[in-house]
Specification:
The complex is a heterodimer of chains A (258) and B (254). Chain A has 258 residues and is mostly helical. Chain A has one domain. Chain A is built from eleven helices and no strands. In chain A, α2 packs across α3. The longest helix of chain A has 36 residues. Chain A starts with a helix and ends in a 6-residue tail after the last helix. Chain B has one domain. In chain B, α2 packs across α6, α6 packs across α7 and α7 runs parallel beside α11. The longest helix of chain B is centred in the last third of the chain and has 32 residues. Chain B starts with a helix and ends in a 6-residue tail after the last helix. The relative contact order of chain B is 0.13. Classes of the chains: A mainly alpha (258), B mainly alpha (254).
Chain lengths: 258, 254
């Protein structure tokens, strides 16, 4: 039953229905993204920042994949007219969303694996065997902390006509405030503190420590704890937001309109 | 005269600036890239900023043209107006040209807006060593974008899931056109491809005019010639499409 649910969910929500298309969009699209930002950083900040930028963007592409995949859940429901049925069903909207999270999470992890191979061949960024466990832990932590944000953005799509503006804005803000394309230290002091409280920032710092400085588990544990704490907070907020938006959408009668 | 009227009509009636995605590209995307640029410059303040501000403007202009001109032809099919256009007195080439000119003018607006943001919000000062040459290069850049927009209108009409393939096209063109990497620094195999892109010539010409190194009219002229070649190519292609459609009642994937 569950397998059927996931298969149906995949077929309904994903446009990459075969391996060829999937690989085209998971290999080429991220690769072009890395090359673009790597070239930008190389000529503006200098060659010593090349690996820094590439690692940042590999993790950013993972975040990009996850957030977009979660956001389209309710968006497509609304477009195809199934949203009122989902919201009106005895199962809570949040439970439906949690069940659907598995495919975006698998897709996100696959994106990371494919990107790691790509950057190994193109930029010679190696992931040693002993790095795998801390990296895996950090990636799971980032995914956990971002699921809440994804659910919030997806929920906004229930009430607002076009959720893409929120989606693009949040992805843009992640690029600026999470230290993807430049070190956090160049941000003004107050903003740097706020940036460290945003999901993804600490996870990325930890990942950079592991790949660049071969940091051991003990060194990255604080980043993991902090990322989990932020994740718990965003999850609680997302539950509250989804419930509120669900009530609001029923009151405003916007479930049927796109 | 008809072309001018079409252009005016297209700008006023058919340019969908209420589209949230276009609003994002025109008004917000330059801000995001300028902010990234601003903080990157904090790492290396010694670098010449002028050409990178234009680069941000070109990123937004290209994104807009890719999505707007790319769907110029296929959106008519989606909207059910393609048959009406084919049946009208005005040729399909002229209609696509009008749409492409209109989108490129908005692209120019994008570049101007980026410069405005850079000066007002980020306090960047933009210098040019030769204003006339910079403006001329900018005009050639817009001419290049019009020709590229027309090619895109035809090409994108051949794909089923056009938006996804457009996402795939955003960065390669920017990388190959020498926006950040000078074409000479690209691997040899990619350099001929770079020079086939009309933007490459005008971007090089624009950067040279900004920095003040010895300006070569070769790139300015090259941009005009390559773009003109694309106009001829799209004219032939659109005429063929028009003919195929009339015969088969099908276009591209439909």
């Amino acid at each position: 039953m569950s397998t059927n649910f996931f298969t149906l969910s995949y077929k309904a929500l994903y446009s990459y229905q075969n391996v060829k298309t999937y690989l085209t969009f998971r290999v080429l699209e991220p690769l072009f993204h890395y090359l673009f930002f790597a070239s930008m950083a190389y000529y503006i900040m200098g060659s010593e920042y090349l690996n820094f930028i590439v690692i940042g963007n590999v993790i950013y592409m993972m975040v990009h994949t996850l957030i977009i995949n979660i956001t389209v859940m309710l968006r497509f429901d609304k477009i195809y007219g199934t949203l009122p049925y989902n919201i009106g069903s005895p199962t809570s909207t949040l439970a439906i969303m949690f069940k659907r999270l598995l495919i975006p999470i698998i897709d996100t992890i696959l994106t990371f694996i494919i990107s790691s191979l790509t950057v190994f061949f193109i930029f010679n960024i190696k992931i040693e065997f002993e790095m795998i466990f801390p990296l895996l832990l950090l990636i799971i932590t980032i995914i956990f902390s971002l699921c809440g944000i994804g659910i919030i953005i997806s929920g906004l799509g229930v009430v607002f006509k076009n959720v893409n503006l929120f989606l693009n804005l949040s992805l843009g803000l992640f690029q600026i405030f999470c230290g993807v394309n430049f070190p956090l230290s160049v941000l003004p002091n107050g903003i740097e503190t706020i940036a460290r409280c945003i999901p993804f920032t600490n996870g990325l710092l930890g990942i950079r420590e592991v790949i660049t400085n071969s940091a051991e588990m003990n060194t990255v544990l604080p980043y993991i704890y902090f990322e989990i704490s932020i994740g718990v907070v965003t999850f609680i907020i997302s539950i509250f937001v989804i419930k509120t938006l669900e009530i609001l959408s029923r009151k405003k009668g916007v479930l049927f309109f796109d | 005269m008809i072309a001018l009227r079409l252009l005016f009509f297209n700008l006023i009636k058919f340019t969908d600036l209420r589209n949230k995605f276009y609003q994002w590209i025109i008004f917000c995307q330059p801000l995001i890239f300028l902010t990234i640029l601003y903080f990157m410059l904090k790492v290396n303040p010694a670098i010449n900023i002028d050409k990178y501000i234009f680069a941000v403007g070109i990123i937004s202009a290209w994104s807009f043209i890719l999505y707007a001109s790319g769907t110029a032809l296929i959106s008519e099919k989606w909207g059910g107006t393609f048959e009406l256009i084919l049946g009208s007195n005005t040729s399909l080439f002229r209609i696509v040209l009008t749409k492409s000119v209109c989108n490129s003018l908005i692209g120019l607006l994008n570049i101007c807006l980026t410069i405005l943001y850079a000066q007002i919000i980020y306090g960047f000062e933009i210098h040019t060593s030769n204003l006339i040459l910079s403006i001329s290069s900018l005009i050639v850049l817009i001419y290049s974008l019009i020709s590229l927009g027309m090619v895109l209108a035809v090409l994108c009409s051949l794909f089923n899931n056009v938006f996804e393939y457009q996402n795939l096209m955003v960065f390669p063109f920017l990388i190959l056109s020498g926006l950040f990497i000078p074409v000479n620094d690209l691997p040899l195999i990619f350099q001929p491809i770079s020079y086939v892109i009309p933007m490459t010539w005008s971007i090089k010409s624009l950067y040279d005019s900004l920095i003040g190194i010895e300006f070569s009219y070769f790139y300015l002229l090259g941009g005009i010639l390559i773009s003109s070649f694309y106009f001829v190519l799209t004219y032939i292609f659109i005429s063929k499409i028009e003919l195929i459609f009339r015969k088969t009642n099908k276009i591209g994937v439909f």
